[in-house]
Amino acid sequence: MSVAGTSQLGFVIWDQDAPTGGTVYDHNLISELRALGIAIRLHKLPGPWPEADASAQAKLARALRAQPACLVDGILTGASPEVVVAAVESGHAVTVVVHLPISDELGLEPGRRERYTALEAQAVRAASGVVCPSHWCAAELQRRYGRSDVGVAVPGVMPAPAARGSQHSGIPRLLTLASLTPTKDQITLVRALGQLTDLGWLADLVGFDLADPGYAARVRSEIAEAGLTDRIRVTGPLIGSVLDQRWDAADLLVLPSRVETFGLVVTEALARGIPAIVSAGTGAVEALAQGASPGAPTVSLDRLRAHAPAAVVAPGTAIPPNDPTALAEVLRSWLSNPELRRAWREAALVRRATLPGWQQTAAAVLSYLERLQ
Questions:
Q1: What is the pLDDT of residues 241-294, one digit of tens each?
Q2: Domain extent for 229
Q3: CATH code of the domain containing 28
Q4: Which of 24, 162, 261, 313 has the highest local Cβ count within 10 Å?
């Protein structure tokens, strides 16, 4: 089967309404593969994935066998290794696209986490191939599951106009764009902002708020208890022109995730000239470095404290996860230092011209699939 020829390539995704980095990745990859001349047969499977019933798993099995080779979103296969095993044993090539290991979602009951870890290990090992969005994620999959041939296809980004930010209002505006879950850890940001009430700022928490209703309620409760309801808006998911308006108004992206395989939203921010604060030790650090020249220094918390000149060449910084005090310290530096804000902004504007596009993502996936033959 030649992927680049006339044969059909299947792509199996989760049919859900919530916009996520994974769904953005999947849909852009499909579009670009088609632009490269690959005939894609799209299978959209509804259901409570990864906890799917027998009927949903039967639909997944049929989708994997509907063509000689297919890509499949990892949330569909993570808890269904027997479906992957059966498809591969019957001669079908199955390449799993791992956006986030399903056992990494915080808030899982320990028994479920252990079960997910064991099931996902079986699925990853049984698959014909595995693709993920970052070198950080590939290293994690190798460490956990012993898979040394994981392909890396870094997410691309669509060109976007430079954000105007708060240049008219004069009040710096922060943006977090992520589902409200313990993994994305918006509560750490709320607690950090609670230490900065003496400074001027506004913040938007944009993202799907029904994935974990209990956590979303806690976020809103923390905001209210801190007396910040007039300064922090929890908007729910936004798309289209309404989301574009939030992007255009933003001066800084804050992504406090405790776990992140890449952080597509970071490169989306850089595409608009918006710097970012991300969590150290996650794949979001790799996203913040996208488009940087080789050897370019990163910004550490220690450099910020020392006011080192080298600290201002990157469009943001990484801070320890789950540490409101450290985040508040960096935000205070950024809010109270116009020179630092200007330097981060200029660095982000420079990156806009060097970020990879989705066509490069598709080319990387296609090259990996060709190597599997």
A1: 999 999 999 999 999 999 999 999 999 999 999 999 999 999 999 999 998 765
A2: 173-351
A3: 3.40.50.2000
A4: 261
- Are 221 and 290 members of one domain? yes
Q: For 89-106, what is each residue's pLDDT tens digit?
A: 999 999 999 999 999 988
Same domain, 340 and 215: yes
Residue with token string 């004069």: 170
Neighbouring CB atoms inside 10 A of 149's CB total 12
Distance from C-alpha of 24 to C-alpha of 20, rounded to nearest angstrom: 6
Q: Where do we find the tokens 């708060």? A: 166
100 and 242 together in one domain: no
Q: Residue range 59-79: average pLDDT?
A: 95
Its pTM stands at 0.90
Tell me: do 142 and 221 sit in the same domain: no
Q: Is residue 167 part of a domain?
A: no
Task: Give the CA count within 13 Å in the CB-facing half-sphere of 171.
Answer: 10
DSSP 161-209: PPP-TTTTT-S-EEEEES-SSTTTTHHHHHHHHTT-TTS--EEEEES--
